[in-house]
Amino acid sequence: MNKTPAEQAAVVGAIDPDVYTANTYYTGYIPMKNFRRFMAIVMAGTLGSSATLNAKLIAYTDGSGGGALDIPGAAITALTQAGTDADKQAVINFNTDLLAGSTLYTHFRLAMTTAVADCDAGAIVLGFDPRYAPASDNDATTVDEIVTV
């Protein structure tokens, strides 16, 4: 039986591509119960002079920001203009088994931090290995259309 990619993976969070000033930007709170694995893709566009772009995953005990915990190892090395990282991507893979010893954490979100100068950037979080198919049933509300050919 052939499955489409949208049946196996879903867009569960996003930080829309834009020019961002120095600040921290977040996806919405993403429930971990729907998928076994996630992948966050951070995309750097043009980075301002001396700019830095960081990203990490933060776990929560609920869907409103309670009990925040930086997920161990789930952070990228800073992308910088000085490091010629403009127009590059960084990927964070997250297996929910990492937090399996704790039933406290039910949600997570991606935090993307820009510093020093404006940055063109964006990010997307994908959910894989859905607990119930199709994965697209759990797409973020921002997903406007799925086309299959």
Commentary on this structure:
The chain is mainly beta and 149 residues long. The protein has one helix spanning 5-8; strands at 9-20, 23-26, 30-31, 35-47, 52-60, 69-75, 79-80, 89-95, 107-115, 119-130. The strands form 2 sheets. Strands 2, 3, 5, 6, 7 and 9 form a 6-stranded antiparallel sheet that branches. A 4-stranded antiparallel sheet has the order 1-10-4-8. The longest helix has 4 residues, at 5-8. The chain is globular, with a radius of gyration of 16 Å.
Q: How many distinct helices? A: 1
Helix content: under 10%
- What structural class results from the helix and strand content? mainly beta
Strand content: over 45%
Characterize the largest beta sheet: strand count, sense, and whether it forms a barrel. 6 strands, antiparallel
- CA-atom Rg in angstroms: 16 Å
Provide mean pLDDT, rounded: 94
* Total number of beta strands: 10
Low-confidence stretches: none
**Termini, distance in Å?**
16 Å
Give the oligomeric state of the chains in this entry, treating copies of one chain as homo and distinct chains as hetero. Answer: single chain
Q: Which of globular, elongated, flat, extended, rod-shaped describes the shape?
A: globular
Order of helices and strands: HEEEEEEEEEE
